Structure formats: C-alpha cells, structure tokens
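Same chain as my last thread, 318 residues:
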Amino acid sequence: MKIFVIDGDGNSRQPSSLEDVDLAESKLLWVDLYNPADEELSAIGQYFDVHSLVIEDCQKLVDVPKVEEFKEHLFIIWHFLRDHPETEVIEMAGLAALLGANYLVTVHNRELPELEPILSKLSDDPSHFRESPAVLLHAMTDRSVDDFFPLVEDLEDEIEVLLDDLIKDAAGNGMEMLLRLKHRNSAIRKTVMVHGDVIGKLLRPDLPFIPKSSRNYFRDIQDHLVRLGSEVDTNSEYLTTALDVLLGKAGNRMNVTMKRLAAVATVFLPLMFLVGFWGMNFESMPEFAWEYGYILALTSIAVVAIVMVVIAKRNDWF
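reply #2:
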C-alpha cells in the first residue's frame, strides 16, 4: 500500500498507514493498493465507507470500464493496455478507482508502471494536484490513452504492408495475417469505445467530485479517444479492402484454372471425335484396308492437336 497526503497547510508526506491520516484535515489523499489482500480491502471499505459490492468489484477487476455514482464517491473501472508482440495478444490491466471530494483510492491486481511517474511528479510538485484528486485521475487515464496510439499506428503499418504484399502476390499466408490483424483491430476498437463512454460520463455537468476546471482535462482525453476511434475505423476500412483484394485474387486464380481446364478439354474434343469415328466397328470402312490408314489417322490427330493448341495460344486460353 502506497499513501500520499497533502495536508491542509499544503505539506506533503507519505505515511505508512492510514491510521496516521486525518481524512477530514487532508487536502489530498491518494492510496494505491497493488494486489491487496482481502483484509486490506475491508479496511479501505471501512475507512472510506465503501459499499460491499464495490469492494467485491475491486477484488475481481473483471468488469468492463464503467462509472458508478455513490453518495460519498465515484467508483470507476479503467483499463491499461498490455500488448504482447511475441504472442500477439492484447490484454487489459484493470484499475479500480474511488474518487471522493479530497481522496483517490486506486486498486490493481497487476503492476502498473504508468503510475510511478505520476507519484514522482506528485512528490516533486504536489501543488499541481492540489486542486482536486480528479487531476490525479486525469493523469492516470491520460497516460493510459496515450499508450494506445503506438499500437494503433503499428497496426496501420502492418495493414499497409499486407496490402502491398497482396497486390504483389507476395503474401503467402495472407488470410491468416488478415484475420490476426482484424482480431487485434476489433479488440482495440472495443476498448476505445468503452473508454469513450466512461469519459463521456465523467464529463456530465451534474456529476459530483469532478470540478468544472478539471473537465477540460477529461475533454482532452475524449478528443484523443475520438481520434483513436477514427484511426481504428480507418484500419477497419483498410482491412475490408485487403479482404476484397484477397478474395478477388482467389477468384481470379480459380477463373484462370477453370479457363485452362476448359482449354485442355477444347483441344482434346476434336481428337476424341476422330478416335471415336475411327473406332466404329464397320467392315466396309476403306481406311482399315488401306496400307497407310494407320499413318493417316495418327497424322490427322497430330495436325488437329497442333492446330487447336495454336488457336488456344492465340486466344490466350492458356
């Protein structure tokens, strides 16, 4: 448990326990709990008068991002992006936050290195956060959203490379790559949308514990999410184009194959006619008694075959 306090006189300190903190006399109190035990969460619930269902959500941290309003605080669930390039899996590290009039409690079950620079800045310049704990919450959510941009831009680059390879017929496993990129883009799109809903609720004028002066900061995050949403939608259009190109090329390959098979059948059709014609069992056919009848049959078949192949080549059947 990490505790940071700015008292009524503007002095900052980091006590080791909440027993050393007078909440009513504090200008700002930030309590950060990493993978807390049930006893710690129960103590936090009693200290800040938190509903038992909120404590349960803090234990699980499996819900989608949301904002819930209570009498003494706001309960917020936010996600931090976790990308694993080696497995190409996008995960979310959950953060539960209790935002009160003069305090912020954050709970997370996974390490969040994004919080360390905020704590350092809070220690170096506490006056920046003295206005409201909502400024602290903004710093965390803003840092989370900023981490989305490199991933979206890298995804856009991968899609462009895939499109170039498809056009050049250099994408051997194009469908597999396309489905992988589509899955990643869909995961990012869903995350951007739900976080946009959270920011929209935090910008409500009637929402308590978010001062009017702090709403401009959250509005900036909303602008970032709108921009991210636009880039994700653009990636979706690129992926749709890539799918059309891939299916179109597959259809073209099928058409070429069918054309070649049809050309082969066309070449053999007159040959089959000749063989069938001379294969009739009539004793009176003069060719059978002629000395050069067999040579005539083979020569006719060869000439017809050559003529049909030339015609096929000139008409681009092969």
